[in-house]
Amino acid sequence: MCIILWQADFSQVFIVLKDFSLENLLFICLLQLITILLINLQWHKIALNMGEKTALKDLIHMNMVGTFVESITPSAKAGGEATKVYLLKTRMGFSTGKAAALVAVQKTISLIAFLLLNILSMGWFVVSVDVEGLQVKVIFGSFLFLTVVLLVLLLLVLYPSKLLSFIKGLTIKKKWKEKFYDVLETLEATVRDMLQQKKQLCGQFSLSLIIWLLFAFKAYLIAKGLNIQLSFIGIAVITYLTYMIGMLPLLPGGVGTFEGSMVFFLLPLGVASYEGMALALILRLVTFWLVFLLSALFLGYQQLMKIQNLYSH
């Protein structure tokens, strides 16, 4: 990926970027804000299905903080998810078990939808493109990693009691074992209740598909604005494969990995490296840097308010 980034003609990249209209960029940023709202509404609805009433503004705060942590740590989002559990417990009064259940269920639904789209994308890419051996290894290696992550999540969500026997064998203090038991029992009871709400789960799965389709739509609009002549399906396939590789825990936020992967997969489709780099940079600006900036500004504002309140007293 580093070689691909190094070989890109950045003088050509800047020429292409200058031709991208500000109107297009602002519209795509608006779509990203809609995406953020939909993600927060999904969290809100899943919490309601669990019997927990939470203010949407509190969930937005939680996701802003989680996004900031995810952006400064390697991908796979583990740090961000742990932060969300902590905030659900300390800020919104969730029990640890309920907080873990909400995070695990939302993550599982989102990952299942994402991996389904990636299975379709891998099939299209292998059939439609003259694939090299390295591309196959990268695609299937990334898919295997995310599949393992999903299986671990499913084990945690569907069979938390299986972990009890493992915990029994650990040489830790009794009070910690009891805390683990309480968390897992609450998690199991919460998930069991949710699994009975099949209609709501199907609705959340559909919403996850819509959210992921919006990412492909944003990439397609950027490609059209850059005069890259590819179909929506072609752009969607490259977008999902690129995001899949970007989720590998290599660099903070997948920076560099994402851009290199997009160029890497666009080359066999006849897209020049400088055009692919321009597409990757704008897409990352909207879906990563914009969100990171918003979360950083939000946290900065929160800290300023705390300092102001401290001095006012």
TrEMBL record:
Bilayer-spanning residue ranges: 25-43, 99-126, 138-159, 201-220, 226-243, 277-301
Compartments, as annotated in UniProt: Cell membrane
Catalytic EC class: transferase
Topology with respect to the bilayer: Multi-pass membrane protein
Coiled coil: none
GO molecular function: phosphatidylglycerol lysyltransferase activity
Keywords, comma-separated and alphabetical: Antibiotic resistance, Cell membrane, Lipid metabolism, Membrane, Transferase, Transmembrane, Transmembrane helix
Function (record text): Catalyzes the transfer of a lysyl group from L-lysyl-tRNA(Lys) to membrane-bound phosphatidylglycerol (PG), which produces lysylphosphatidylglycerol (LPG), a major component of the bacterial membrane with a positive net charge. LPG synthesis contributes to bacterial virulence as it is involved in the resistance mechanism against cationic antimicrobial peptides (CAMP) produces by the host's immune system (defensins, cathelicidins) and by the competing microorganisms.
Record keyword Transmembrane present: yes
EC number: 2.3.2.3
Family named by the database record: Belongs to the LPG synthase family.
GO cellular component term of the entry, any: plasma membrane
InterPro entries attached to this UniProt entry: L-PG_synthase/AglD
Catalysed reactions, semicolon-separated: L-lysyl-tRNA(Lys) + a 1,2-diacyl-sn-glycero-3-phospho-(1'-sn-glycerol) = a 1,2-diacyl-sn-glycero-3-phospho-1'-(3'-O-L-lysyl)-sn-glycerol + tRNA(Lys)
PANTHER family per UniProt: UPF0104 MEMBRANE PROTEIN MJ1595
Protein name per the record: Phosphatidylglycerol lysyltransferase
Any single GO BP term: lipid metabolic process
Organism: Clostridium aceticum
Family annotation (NCBIfam families): flippase-like domain
